[in-house]
Design goal:
Structural class: alpha/beta
Number of helices: 19
Low-confidence stretches: 1-48, 552-563
CATH topology of one domain: Rossmann fold
Helix content: 25-40%
Distance between the termini: 77 Å
Mean pLDDT: 84
Strand content: 15-25%
Number of strands: 26
Length: 563
């Protein structure tokens, strides 16, 4: 075992003093991330409740002031703030014992659990870079991502890691289910006093994007950015120790670990965890332990709205943040009609900006349902053309962002970082426009645009109109290859319970509100539209399945349709 307060031979302690952190700010260059020193303004929000600017400091504050209050709940198991604080510190000992140094990478590969949270926050305290990883990845993808970040330790659920992963990557592997037992045996005498200082611009997190081809990009997020966003959420939603949330999304996504976990840590509220999303399980948990704040994608909220106990589910909720895609106006109106007390906030964010960067004010949720609203304090927004010049209000262009929660860069991708970051600006790749009131409206990803014979069609535009039809529960539009027009429009739909699909009726309805070139050419009916790991409709999978099963029409029919 290493000597007390050290890692191996001559290594610095994991739980370091503030001055050691400042001296170690060159860690970004040392670990070959390849990102530049960003030219950006900072707006560090110090918590008005805790006085801290770090998540570690916030936990320590609540452990001192509310030691016996419940911080975490998963099923019947709970951790108080005091127990969480203690577990985080003991986790630092575990890292020491396994030779993990400050700046090393620790991968978390597991579903929502108390152990996952302890490890995530414990890495923040130890100034170790935490790497949340998608549990739905194939083994080859896991190996590639673990190797990409050169992880020192992989904490994993049963069946997701083990000897094979250790052999193929060289990383140590430990089952998450063993974590609390391992840390409970750790001696606090062998670790230095815990450091609650903010980590400044040193890397704290690598958040992989949701790419489905090749190895996804790893956005490097600083400790300061994590705290900045957490306290911004706490301020915007006016959350405090009396509030609570149920994390129904996978916690390895930004919505889970940033918008809910970090948010509630900053606020001192209670965090409940649903191991994996099932509508019935979520409903039961919300009735047993009501949450005042929820964050989810529209499809999850829709399933809860259709539940038999919907009134009981939503009665205790004070605020709902939703994003990932626009919620159909009809759903927003139904939520407001049935539960008028709800504060509904549409959000837009991305991994490269830690998470959320805009909010649509609740009073505009129905009238501006498809807008994602206004930038958070400290965030700047531009809409630019292909030359990088600002466009006029109402004109489509690429969304560029700047602000204190922007990533430091992509892990070990200097060329890609340079392409994505222009001075203080992040090029998002999202297509959007700003209206006369300054509200941002998204029109999809640049690579989702359907090009039908030269006419550019945004899938969200088609989906929003289809969703207005009384027989449709959900719709997902996408383009498919065509020899004559380049692409045509296909739509996968899910009908409401008891409703029958009638293509002629739907097409007739759409002809009253869509241009003729945007009318879908093909329809596919699903009992339930497939979701990706983020809980969004899996557009890429739907397109791939559709094209694989597509039977070509006759040339005569294609030529007639092209007229």
């Amino acid at each position: 075992m290493p000597a007390a307060g050290s890692v191996g031979t001559g290594g610095p302690p994991v739980a370091v003093r503030a001055q050691r952190v400042r001296a170690h700010r060159t860690v970004a260059g040392r670990v070959r991330a390849g990102y530049p020193n960003p030219d950006r303004s900072t707006l560090m929000i110090r918590s008005p409740q805790t006085g801290h600017t770090s998540l570690s400091g916030a936990v320590a504050h609540w452990a001192d002031t509310r030691p016996n209050a419940i911080a975490l709940r998963c099923g019947e198991t709970t951790l108080t703030w005091s127990e969480l604080d203690d577990a985080m510190t003991r986790f630092g000992v575990l890292l020491l014992d396994r030779g993990v140094r400050m700046g090393d990478r620790v991968v978390l590969l597991g579903e929502n659990s108390l152990e996952w949270v302890v490890a995530f926050l414990g890495c923040q305290r130890a100034h170790v870079i935490v790497v949340p990883m998608n549990t739905r990845l194939a083994q080859s993808q896991v190996v590639a991502q673990v190797a990409k970040v050169d992880a020192k330790l992989v904490l994993h659920d049963v069946g997701l890691g083990g000897t094979d992963l250790a052999t193929r990557t060289g990383a140590q592997c430990l089952e998450l289910s063993e974590l609390l037992r391992e840390t409970s045996r750790s001696s606090l005498e062998s670790v230095a006093a815990s450091d609650h200082s903010d980590g400044g611009e040193i890397p704290a997190l690598i958040s992989f994007t949701s790419g489905t081809t090749g190895i996804p990009k790893g956005a490097v997020i600083s400790s300061a950015a994590m705290a900045e966003l957490a306290y911004a959420f706490s301020d915007y939603f006016e959350t405090g120790p009396d509030d609570s949330t149920l994390i129904v999304v996978p916690i390895f996504h930004n919505t889970g670990f940033a918008d809910q976990l970090a948010h509630m840590v900053a606020s001192g509220g209670t965090i409940s965890l649903l191991r994996r999303y099932r509508t019935g399980d979520a409903a039961a948990e919300l009735m047993a332990h009501p949450a005042t704040f929820l964050a989810a994608v529209p499809s999850m909220l829709r399933m809860l709205m259709l539940h038999d106990e919907a009134d009981a589910i939503f009665s205790g909720v004070r605020a709902i943040m939703y994003g990932g895609s626009a919620m159909p106006e009809a759903w927003v109106q139904e939520l407001q009609r049935r539960w008028p007390h709800l504060k509904l906030v549409h959000a837009y964010g991305l991994s490269e900006f830690t998470s959320v960067c805009t909010f649509l004010p609740s009073d505009l949720a129905a009238t501006k349902a498809e807008s994602v609203g206004l930038p958070l304090p400290g965030v700047q927004l531009r809409i630019v053309d292909e030359s990088g010049d600002d466009v006029a209000p109402g004109v489509l262009g690429e969304v560029w962002l700047s602000g204190p929660t922007r990533m430091l860069g992509y892990w070990d991708e200097p060329r890609l970082t340079a392409e994505k970051m222009t001075g203080q600006w992040l090029r998002t790749g999202d297509v959007g426009r700003i209206d006369g009131d300054g509200l941002l409206w998204l029109h999809g990803r640049a690579d989702d645009v359907i090009n039908r014979g030269g006419e550019k069609i945004m899938p969200t535009f088609v989906e929003s109109h289809i969703a207005r039809h009384e027989t449709v529960a959900a719709a997902c539009a996408f383009g498919y290859a065509d020899d004559i027009l380049q692409q045509r429009v296909a739509v996968a739909i899910e009908t409401r319970a008891g409703a029958a699909f009638d293509e002629q009726e739907l097409v007739g309805f759409l002809r009253t509100c869509l241009p003729d070139y945007a009318i879908p050419d093909r329809w596919v009916v699903y009992d339930a539209l497939p979701l990706n790991a983020s809980g969004k409709f899996d557009r890429k999978a739907l397109r791939a399945d559709f094209e694989a099963a597509l039977q070509p029409k006759s040339i005569e029919h294609e030529q007639e349709s092209a007229k």
